Write the structure tokens for this entry.
Amino acid sequence: MHGQRDVLGIGAHLQRVHRLGDQIAGADADDPAAKQAVANSTTITNKLLNGTGNRTVDSFHRELGKIVWDNCGMARNEAGLKKALSQIPALREKFWKNVRVLGTNEEFNQSLERAGRVADFFELAELMCLDALDRKESCGGHFREEYQTPEGEALRDDNNYSYVAAWEFQGEGRSPALTKEPLTFNYVHPSQRSYK
Amino acid sequence: MKLILHVWRQKNPQDKGGMVRYDAPNVNEHMSFLEMLDVLNESLIEKGEDPIAFDHDCREGICGMCGMMINGKAHGGFKGTTVCQLHMRHFKDGDEIYLEPWRAKAFPVIKDLAVNRASFDRIIAAGGFISVPTGSAPDGNTIPVKKQDADLAMDAAACIGCGACVAACPNAAAALFVGAKISHLGHLPQGQVERDRRALAMVQQMNIEGFANCTNIGECEAACPKDIKLEVIARTNRDYIKASITERPETTTASAG
């Protein structure tokens, strides 16, 4: 940034980004964390490619989507969410047993790309339903049918749920841990929305 | 309806490749062309055959990822339409359809119908930008722009970089793409500072990538799914010729600032 004012601090920021890039580029492939990440990725890839199932990735994607669409859409309720939370792990188990991914890891393989993504979607879908079940209030477009005003508007509960829920992965098959990031409003306070 | 597809299959960039015949027995007229291919791929996977690789992303005609030659025409040859916007009602029962990837030296085939268009990215990186501090968006109308200029810039900015112009061109020229980018920025006040440098750098990169010269055939305009007009090429030529005469190397113009 010679001879120019770095008004917004972009130059300094770019330098930091470049340094970070250098660090990543120079990351040690023998580092235990790097080795573990590679091993994990290789295991998943091999598991997907070596399966002897008969169902396509897209068929699982569609079935998973239907579960989430039916039970964790704009309007959701406790019974539906609990149902989804029992259906998703069952479908995931079927996915890992029955999915068929052709080709190899050493070529341009769009089926493998999609399979990896759908495998992640199972985790995401389950977490979404878990979070929706945990939040016992309606909030904007996230409408819990049990929590509504007599007029059918979203019933907020800012005393108990004015936070961002950050869920931490605890490992395969274990419940994620909730960290609450509080939302504090000093001047304008959230309240029941009314268009009247 | 039942269709017969002849699809270019090529395992990798080194493979010789060739046309393979497929039957598509259950095609619904409401399917998009890509959905028809999805269904075919599902049946191939179930039979244990390698599915056909093709690029796609938004499937609403705005991302520029999809594209293939359908019966020798880029995106199928319908006006202002990408492959994802092409619906099967344009075909009839028993039709034979030939599918090939974009053919151009600068677009090497990755696999089947998917080609590598990184050459376009490198042309953009050479000059398809303006240098301004980033940060919060400036207020609207801070810089006045004539309505006519705004319209012309917007028309050029509609280019989604799909590569149909290159595929349609007998010379495999990228003139329409480069012209769209140069016109988009060149019509706006923010694009003036680097206008000369942009023309020189983008044309130079276009030549390095192996795109051939424009000979004013006009196939590109006909194939463009975003209706980019040939006049953008004239603009490239004007900017390039002017810049060739007037632009000085940066080292002699830069001084204290």
